[in-house]
Automatic annotation (TrEMBL):
Pfam families registered for this protein in UniProt: CMD
An MF annotation (GO) of this entry: peroxiredoxin activity
Name the record gives this protein: Alkylhydroperoxidase AhpD family core domain-containing protein
Keyword line: Oxidoreductase, Peroxidase
SUPFAM superfamilies, A to Z: AhpD-like
Top-rank taxon: Bacteria
InterPro entries, A to Z: AhpD-like, CMD-like
Domain Carboxymuconolactone decarboxylase-like: 55-124
Length: 191
């Protein structure tokens, strides 16, 4: 149970009900962070627009790199909701989710590519307090992904920090997106 109650569909205003409907169609259930932030319609709108814009804009990096950055930040922050949802997103991208059990061994595990190792190490550095990113790290990432890629990596890690810290502060925990306990999320194309 989160620190704040969710806004039920019957208690939600028209805009929140629209967001809920879109979310149900897309994810099989209303993500709890949406239903909590619905107490503040302005932030619900801002968050929804921002998430859509980031999803459309973040296309420089390969999907496996984009998704592993968000997942790693979620793991580092201990955001069980983000880990659950991020696992579902990777599953929908057709990525191997079994290897996520070995994320802490990414530096030596053959389950992770060089690009993924670089991205995970960067996610760790961005998430550290204080931030521990080095000039050498950025230079290596720029050689690997280009400037747009470095900016995208940085942005995605920062956005996941925002999500994870907000969810953790409000005690929003895993919702069952990967287990099917809270909802049955259809794979894309099967809905």
């Amino acid at each position: 149970m989160s620190r704040m109650p969710v806004v039920s569909t019957k208690d939600a205003n028209l805009f929140a009900r629209l967001i809920y409907r879109i979310a149900r169609r897309r994810y099989g259930a209303v993500p709890e962070p949406f239903a909590v932030i619905a107490h503040h319609t302005g932030l619900l709108a801002a968050g929804a627009l921002h998430e859509l814009a980031v999803e459309k804009a973040a296309r420089t990096l390969p999907a496996n790199v984009r998704e592993i950055v968000g997942y790693r930040v979620a793991v580092r922050l201990g955001c069980s909701w983000c880990v659950d949802f991020g696992t579902m997103l990777q599953k929908h991208e057709g990525l191997d989710i079994e290897r996520l059990k070995h994320i802490d061994d990414y530096a030596t595990s053959p389950l992770y590519s060089r690009q993924e190792r670089l991205a995970i190490a960067y996610a760790d550095a961005v998430t550290a307090t204080p931030v521990a990113v080095t000039d050498e790290q950025v230079a290596e990432l720029e050689r690997e992904f280009g400037r747009k890629g470095v900016l995208e990596l940085t942005y995605l890690a920062a956005v996941e920090n925002l999500r994870g810290r907000m969810n953790s502060a409000l005690e929003i925990t895993d919702q069952g997106f990967t287990s099917g306990e809270a909802c049955r999320v259809p794979l894309p194309g099967l809905a």
